[in-house]
Design brief:
The chain has 222 residues and is mainly alpha-helical. The chain has 7 helices and no strands. The protein is 88% helix and 0% strand.
């Protein structure tokens, strides 16, 4: 098995090495992004389970203690909203502060993911370059070699061309899949953050309306 892979790599010619490097860097980025997003999703679920009861009860001080200085995306988002609670009266002001928090969080979650699409295209193009190089070598070999060697040289050059194409495509397909997968997971995380922000704003609005109605009733009673 190992010998077959080594023979395949050797027969692909000099363009196999750049494709291999592109694939290794791309896979390293994909693994790092996958672990980062997985931890962020797990931490977000755990924190929301802890802070949601406090928000529903209107205990914003306890919610602030739970969020604290947490550097998780949900912690930073709710921290921005809770910092505005009590300082401003309008829901729009709190919403703008949380939107600003999301605008800071999203680029961090999408960090380096776009390189996977670029690397997939690079692997395909380098593979095609190797194919063209192999075909040029094949035609050159046929033109200058003696008739007895033409078949072997032509076969080696075509093998280089096909192996390079296959390796380039074989590297590009998993990178494209990981790009789509990570983009989808990032979008899911962003949607969960937006949902948490809307729930917090709805709780805040409900509490504000109840306080206003209570104040009106007290005035009427007086």
């Amino acid at each position: 098995m190992f010998q077959a892979i080594a023979h395949f790599f050797k027969a692909g010619g000099p363009m196999m090495l750049p494709i291999l490097l592109i694939g290794l860097v791309g896979m390293a980025i994909a693994i790092e992004r996958f672990i980062t997003l997985l931890k962020a999703q797990q931490h977000t679920r755990a924190m929301w389970a802890r802070v949601e009861p406090s928000l529903n009860d209107g205990d914003f001080d306890k919610a602030r203690k739970i969020v604290g200085d947490d550097n998780n995306p949900l912690g930073r988002l709710l921290g921005a909203g809770l910092a505005m609670q009590g300082a401003v009266r309008r829901r729009d002001d709190v919403e703008k502060a949380m939107q600003e928090g999301i605008m800071e969080i999203v680029p961090r979650m999408e960090k380096r993911t776009h390189y996977l699409g670029t690397f997939a295209n690079l692997a395909t193009l380098v593979g095609l370059l190797g194919t063209v190089s192999g075909l040029i070598g094949a035609f050159s070999a046929v033109a200058t070699a003696n008739p007895a060697e033409k078949a072997n040289l032509l076969s080696a050059s075509i093998s280089e061309a096909m192996n390079c194409t296959a390796f380039g495509l074989g590297t590009a397909v998993p990178l494209l899949f990981m790009h789509a997968f990570l983009t989808s997971r990032t979008q899911n995380l962003v949607e969960s953050l937006e949902m948490a922000a809307i729930k917090y704003l709805n709780v805040l609005t409900l509490r504000t309306n109840r306080a206003a109605q209570g104040a009106v009733q007290n005035i009427r009673a007086a």
